[in-house]
Write a structure and sequence with these properties.
21 helices, single chain, alpha/beta, 4-stranded mixed sheet, about 575 residues, 7-stranded mixed sheet
Length: about 575
């Protein structure tokens, strides 16, 4: 090869490598700098984090609290456990019968609190809930304890339990004569589709058995019609457990066709403008509450730096700009309204934010209390075949799609939400919930409690305003006070429209009472050394010494350097502490 040819080849190769590096740099700059924004790295790091468990001393004193406070906490958790065992004996007994045979229970039991505390936590706090009756805004366990429901049934319960029980009864009455016929449609499907078309402003509808399935179909159709390969999701956003839209922790498949970009980012818009391989962009409307962060959960309450907040104007403007870029580049904009549909507005997030999507997924509450997923889109995007390519299809089916009983409950739901009194409730709801949360925060300030409530409409979250390591304990005080939370704890309090002002005031009273008891029991003890930064540094030291035992005694955390022996790789008896206080 001549020198000139070699030189030319070197120049071409160098130019290509430089070009690819610049493209890669542009993508990296569009990702959020946290591990959540880097799916591959998040999985790698997750595999490196060791399990470790605080022993009894560490469980009560990992924040450096003095002996008097430690003893106060020991007494408090013993008394709380005793009261819980007495008040919920039958419920806990039933929960114990399934804890080793239902995998979901095993998972939620392990992740109610930060993992170093989980094995020392008394079993009665780790177990889930069982219930046998609801009414309006309340739920009853097997021992007859009525609690105000702040769990929201994972988003299903927008209007109160009586509403859904009536929808289910009416729906089954409408379809009982047909029974579980599948394949043939019950005629109610026509009314349901027309209502969803009117609500969504889109042309066609397909039904599925879950929100995850609806999202899977939306993504599949977007790829099918655009001929492009990649999906864009935003950092922290949840779109179901399917690995195609959950590329980070929790998914073992390497999703090479998903870009996780930063929300509210100019760099992300540049990626959308410059890449030719993007088929669709997924939007979860709830992400406006905590952009670029996962949904808040008590299992991540290591310190008190949980942060969220909602600016409707800012997020609406962002979605409008995003929509303009998608239209310009032929990218399908998909609103994933599975969780928030019919909560933010009658017309969903499209109406709430004033932005129209190309496809919208629905689920949860739309089924009127029964399982459902639905996808609405334009005629062009919903078509599953090509006229000139008869074998080139986009296949999607499901045995129980459009089940008659589900169609009946959905029909009752859609009839009810169209009624004038419901439409009036929608018009007033945003201001109503903002007012209620303002009153809630005024009460917390007047009581001088280290708590603040934020909200996106009727979805609330608890923020902790002073540094602490034991905020995750608050969920158990709230439960004892008669407030039912989901297994994720205080990160999301999902309230239904059925709450009256009087009931909301009662929730505030119970919340404040629980907070005072938490405070009196020493869990929010303070010292000048106890900062969020110091807490996280101490946690890092604890984690490193658990993974590398040789470091014990060689590195010291800022809070309790003398407590090296309080960390073990794993305790052999999950109820070591429980047996001591029992």
């Amino acid at each position: 090869m001549s020198a000139i040819s070699l030189y030319a080849l070197t120049v071409v190769a160098g130019s290509y490598i430089t070009y690819k590096a610049l493209i890669r740099l542009q993508l990296s700059r569009a990702k959020h700098p946290s591990l959540r924004g880097h799916s591959n790295w998040s999985r790698r790091v997750a595999r490196l984090i060791p399990f470790f468990s605080y022993d009894e001393t560490g469980f009560f004193a990992c924040d450096g609290a003095p002996p008097a406070i430690v003893q106060q906490r020991r007494n408090a958790i013993h008394q709380l456990r005793t009261r819980t065992e007495q008040q919920c004996a039958k419920t806990l007994a039933h929960c114990r019968t399934i804890q080793n045979s239902v995998s979901d229970v095993q998972f939620t039991s392990r992740y109610r609190v930060p993992f170093p505390f989980s094995e020392q936590l008394p079993e009665c706090f780790r177990l889930g809930s069982m219930a046998d009756e609801t009414r309006g805004s309340q739920i009853k366990d097997l021992d007859g304890n009525w609690r105000y429901d702040l769990s929201g049934s994972y988003g299903v319960n927008v209007f109160g339990y009586d509403f859904y029980k009536q929808c289910m009864d009416e729906g089954i009455a409408k379809t009982r004569a047909l029974g579980p016929v599948l394949g043939a449609y019950h005629p109610l499907i026509a009314e349901n589709v027309e209502a969803i078309r009117q609500i969504s402003g889109l042309d066609e509808v397909s039904f599925h058995m879950s929100g995850t399935e609806a999202v899977m179909q939306a993504v599949r159709l977007a790829r099918y019609h655009t001929g492009k390969t990649h999906v864009v999701r935003f950092c922290g956003a949840y779109h179901g457990w399917w690995d195609g839209v959950q590329p980070g922790i929790g998914n073992t498949r390497k999703a090479r066709d998903v870009y996780t970009l930063a929300d509210l980012s100019e760099q992300s818009l540049r990626i959308l403008k410059s890449r030719d391989n993007i088929a669709c962009v997924l939007i979860n409307p709830l992400q406006a509450f905590h952009p670029n962060s996962d949904a808040p959960s008590d299992t991540a309450l290591i310190a008190s730096d949980r942060a969220n907040g909602f600016s409707k104007g800012e997020y609406s403007e962002w979605l409008q700009r995003l929509k303009a870029v998608c239209d310009q580049r032929g990218i399908v904009l998909i609103f994933d309204e599975v969780f928030a549909c019919f909560r933010l507005a009658y017309g969903g997030a499209q109406e709430f934010y004033g932005v129209r999507a190309d496809m919208v997924t629905y689920g949860k509450t739309l089924g009127g209390g029964l399982p459902i997923g639905a996808l609405a889109g334009t005629h062009r995007l919903m078509r599953r075949f090509k006229d000139d390519q008869p074998v080139n299809v986009s296949f999607a089916r499901g045995t129980f799609n459009s089940h008659p009983y589900v169609m009946g409950a959905m029909n009752a739901f859609l009839e009810r939400v169209r009624q004038p009194e419901m439409q009036q409730q929608y018009r007033e709801s945003e201001n109503l919930w903002n007012r209620r949360v303002d009153e809630f925060n005024q009460r917390l300030r007047s009581e001088k409690l280290p708590l603040e409530i934020t909200n996106l409409h009727s979805i609330l979250s608890v923020l902790y305003t002073q540094p602490g390591r034991y905020n995750w304990m608050f969920q158990f005080y709230l439960r004892e006070a008669g407030l039912e939370l989901s297994w994720t704890g205080t990160g999301r309090l999902i309230m239904s429209y059925s709450f009256t002002d009087a009931e909301f005031d009662e929730v505030i009273e119970r919340f404040v009472s629980a907070a005072h008891r938490m405070q009196e029991d020493g869990w929010w003890w303070q010292s000048p050394a106890l900062t969020n930064k110091a807490i996280k540094r101490q946690f890092l030291v604890d984690m490193l010494t658990a993974r590398f035992p040789a470091l014990a005694g060689r590195i010291h955390g800022p809070l309790i350097a003398s407590r090296r022996k309080s960390i073990t790789g794993r305790v052999s008896d999950r109820d070591q502490y429980s047996s001591k206080v029992g």
